[in-house]
Design goal:
- The structure is a single chain.
- By secondary structure, the chain is α/β, with parallel strands linked by helices.
- It is 20% helix and 33% strand.
- The protein is built from twelve helices and 38 strands.
- Strands 16-15-17-18-26-25-24-21 form an eight-stranded mixed sheet. The protein has a five-stranded parallel sheet with strand order 4-3-5-6-34, with helices on both faces. Strands 8-14-13-10-11 form a five-stranded mixed sheet, with no helix packed on it.
- β3, α3 (87-104) and β4 form a beta-alpha-beta unit.
- It starts with 6 loop residues before the first strand and ends with a helix.
- Residues 355-496 form the Putative glutamine amidotransferase domain.
- Keywords: Membrane, Transmembrane, Transmembrane helix.
């Protein structure tokens, strides 16, 4: 199609009524001659009708056409995969040449569009093209400069490849390579997110060879913190491989696996992967022993039962051995308190013992109480929640358990009965148990009140919470290999009821319990590290005064760097931190960094910022070739020096060829007038009339 359609008009040389009359007479004469069987009459009638048609003067009109100004879109892919090899250089050279050509062509404007991609979303070229095409008046084509890796390729022609009238415009694909490339990737098929400490994680991985045949030999290696590697398995690409990784400690375990390179592959960036395994304990066993029934018991049950990793054993002491009761023993439905089983046979199987409002009252013999103290010293966790019973006869602090308790309450004036709001001490602002407790919430800027607490006459250990007057409320201590905590109020349950807004009751008890059970994230001495935008930040938490704190940073290549740690937050005097910008290392070097500080160590891996982008790093036309063909465009490989020449081509013709890419010329009709030409040339009608008259005479002569 080259322009708007033409039309037929009539410009008769004689009046219309006269032409109609003459045509009728010709038909009557022809009919009469046919009835008389006159020879040649039909030929003569035809000649007369052609003459009348000539006099009717049919003419064909043609509108005046004008080529519209054209808009072309130059889309430049600047996603992370374009940083491989010399792709950016090839694209920049082609970009410069195409823009120069566009400036030399008449009525052509080239609009540039850069598409960054990455950030975990992959490359999304067509979303950007669809938005940009809305601002083009007369889109004539799109030049796409990319490596061919796009993650939003539509199944049919998108709106960006059609103009407002529905005409398809060409998509010319310019690829930053010499031809189809290959790539090898290592991917994890399955890996458990959590592994019980002391057990083995079963991992399944697979190496894929993209752009070439599978089944090629490949080695699976592990990259160590000293920069050395060791071979874990020999396999073939396309075949799953099962590996066993032991998990020996709580917290995060990092393993970097590497696939040996494929000859000539595009990049080594996806030849490695980081395995992240979270070491956790087996189900935690907690023994909760409540004294007289109280509101706090319900709080503890709700908290511990909500954690699926906790096995809770809860007993409430409803009657003491010396309670007088006339009910026959055979009628009692109470379960006998299994003192021997819990405090002699199975005490070491518990990770935490909670004594809530517990008054001994001769329930436990001294040997069992000594077992509790011994349990703490050998590594167990003990939490004592105290109330008025701590000032009565038979209190725990007067038993062997008292030797491991961090606070002592006097018998006289040991109970404080007045409203107060718990506050964090200076140490509590830095300690992991209370540091992250929310300060603002339904309670406003101040936690809700309690109305009863215990007054101490001596404490040891660390006080994290206190009354406004300074009386300790939460005291932590370490005894031997174990840990013990005392909550010197039995009214934390008021927070769960929302008393004047309440407070962070669940978070405090959760953190306190996990600290007693030695969860790594709540350790008082911690060394943490994370990497963000190429910067390594190291944080050291300690409750022991330090001087000239310095961390040893070991890179994946085994290189050591000294990193000084300083105070950055004066309000947290127990926090030391420092950061450094990590150097750029070759892709095959590794991604795990190891940090040492005193006796502590930790590892951190470079984050997977573009997992979708790194799935396939080839430069290939495979994904886009179908759309390019349907749009009438062509594929050009920039690595061969093949930057196409832009040509403006009439509509309806092929839009590409060897070394050139075409843009269709769209034309529009002007309203300034039309031109007309004779529908039937006069010379042709004259020849036909004479020929038909001659045939008529010839027939009559016979």
């Amino acid at each position: 199609m080259t322009g708007a359609p033409s039309s037929i008009i009539w410009a008769p040389c004689l009046p219309l009524w006269l032409l109609t009359t003459l045509a009728t007479l010709c038909l009557l004469i022809g009919l009469y001659g046919a009835l008389r069987r006159s020879q040649g009459v039909l030929w003569r009638m035809g000649a007369l009708l052609l003459g009348l048609l000539w006099l009717a003067n049919p003419r064909q009109t043609h509108p005046h056409m004008q080529v519209q100004p054209q808009d072309a879109l130059l889309v430049v892919d600047i996603s992370p995969s374009m940083g491989i090899g010399d792709r950016q250089k090839l694209v920049q050279q082609a970009r410069t040449q195409l823009l120069h050509q566009g400036r030399t062509l008449h009525n052509l404007t080239i609009h540039e569009l850069e598409v960054p991609g990455g950030n975990g979303q992959g490359t999304r070229l067509f979303e950007a093209m669809d938005r940009a095409s809305l601002s083009l008046n007369n889109p004539a084509g799109i030049f796409l400069l990319t490596d061919g890796m796009d993650h939003d390729i539509p199944s049919q022609l998108p709106p960006s490849l059609k103009d407002m009238t529905g005409r398809v415009i060409p998509l010319h694909l310019l690829l930053a390579a010499k031809g189809e490339e290959t790539d090898r990737r290592l991917r994890v098929l399955s890996a458990p997110p959590y592994v019980i400490i002391g057990q083995t994680a079963h991992i399944r991985i697979q190496v894929d060879d993209l752009g070439t045949t599978e089944g090629q030999p490949v080695d699976i290696l592990e990259h160590g913190p000293d920069g050395q590697t060791k071979i874990l398995a020999h396999t073939q690409s396309g075949q799953p491989v099962d590996l066993d990784v032991p998990v020996t400690h709580a917290g995060l375990t990092l393993k970097e696996l590497i696939a040996s390179p494929l000859q000539g592959e595009a990049s080594l960036r996806n030849n490695s992967t980081i395995i992240r395994l979270q070491g956790v304990r087996d189900r935690l066993r907690v023994l909760l022993v409540s004294g007289v029934p109280n509101q706090g018991a319900r709080v503890w049950r709700t908290l511990l039962k909500a954690d699926p990793s906790v096995d809770l054993v809860h007993f409430t002491i409803l009657r003491s051995p010396d309670t007088e009761d006339d009910t026959p023993l055979s009628d009692l439905a109470l379960i006998p308190f299994p003192t021997h089983e819990l405090f002699a046979q199975k005490i070491n199987s518990f990770d935490l013992i909670i004594l809530d409002g517990f008054r001994n009252q001769n329930i436990l013999p001294e040997s069992y109480l000594e077992n509790i103290a011994r349990y703490v010293r050998k590594g167990g966790g003990l939490l004592v929640v105290g109330g008025p019973e701590m000032t009565q006869i038979g209190t725990l602090q007067d038993t062997p358990v008292g030797s491991v308790l961090p606070a002592h309450i006097p018998a006289e004036n040991g109970v404080i009965t007045q409203p107060f709001s718990p506050e964090r001490t200076a140490l509590g602002l830095s300690h992991p148990v209370t540091r992250a407790l929310p300060e603002h919430g339904p309670w406003g800027n101040k936690w809700g009140p309690w109305y009863r607490a215990l007054r101490t006459d001596q404490t040891q250990g660390r006080t994290l919470l206190a009354t406004p007057s300074g009386s300790p409320l939460l005291v932590l201590d370490q005894r031997g290999q174990g840990r013990v905590a005392m909550l010197l109020s039995d009214q934390i349950w008021l927070w769960s009821r929302g008393e004047k807004g309440g407070g962070p009751q669940a978070e405090l008890l959760r953190r306190l319990s996990h600290w007693l059970m030695k969860e790594p994230e709540l350790e008082e001495n911690q060394l943490e590290a994370h990497i963000d935008h190429g910067r390594l930040t190291v944080t050291r938490t300690t409750l022991t005064p330090l001087h000239d704190v310095q961390a040893d940073v070991i890179g994946p290549d085994g290189h050591h760097t000294a990193l000084p740690l300083t105070h950055h937050m004066p309000e947290h005097e127990n926090l030391w931190s420092g950061s450094l910008m990590l150097p750029s290392l070759p892709e095959q070097t590794g991604r795990i960094w190891t940090i040492h500080q005193d006796e502590l160590s930790t590892t951190v891996a470079l984050p997977d910022t573009n997992p979708l982008e790194d799935q396939d790093l080839r430069s290939t036309a495979t994904g886009l070739a179908s759309l390019v063909a349907h749009s009438g465009g062509a594929v050009f490989w920039l690595g061969t020096g093949n930057v196409p020449e832009i040509r403006q081509i009439a509509e309806g013709h092929t839009l590409h060829g060897k070394g050139w890419a075409g843009l269709p010329l769209h034309q529009t009709a002007l309203s300034t007038g039309n031109t007309s030409t004779a529908f039937l040339p006069g010379w042709l009608l004259l020849i036909l009339i004479l020929a038909m008259m001659g045939l008529g005479w010839w027939r009559e002569g016979r």
